[in-house]
Design goal:
globular, single chain, Rossmann fold, alpha/beta, about 35% helix, about 10% strand, 3-stranded parallel beta sheet
């Protein structure tokens, strides 16, 4: 069955949370800046845990991994034990994505995506994109 986006609302004038769900953020961030970090991780959690129901050791391909929610998908995937393959167009992002936890970075402007996935997974492919 499909999941409801209402399970993970990301906009509201007010929110009600239990005290255990709250945490302090660094003083160098404004409340708005601190709140921005919440949304990409929530999206990644919803995709990995609720939709895909990933298991440790499975392969995940994160497309456009160096932009928007991509870095959160890489980090959370690694934390969940997923073998993350990060795809990006820019070779300058390779070290950044590896530092976030990607096992393999494919630069799509320089490498064939499908060939690299098959090579890295021994022709098994990925479990989730």
């Amino acid at each position: 069955p499909a999941e409801s986006p209402n399970d993970y609302p990301v906009y509201g004038e007010q929110i009600v949370l239990p005290r255990s769900a709250l945490t302090r953020y660094p003083d160098v961030l404004s409340p708005i800046e601190a709140s921005v970090h919440y949304t990409p991780l929530l999206i990644a959690y919803f995709a990995y845990v609720d939709l895909a129901r990933v298991k440790p050791g499975q392969f995940a391909l994160v497309t456009d991994a160096s932009h928007c929610a991509g870095p959160s998908f890489v980090q959370l995937g690694k934390a969940l034990g997923v073998r993350v393959i990060a795809a990006t167009k820019d070779s300058d992002e390779r070290e950044y994505l590896l530092s976030l936890g990607a096992e393999k970075v494919i630069v799509t402007e320089e490498q064939d995506l499908l060939m690299q996935i098959n090579k890295f997974t021994d022709n098994r492919g990925v479990d989730v994109v």
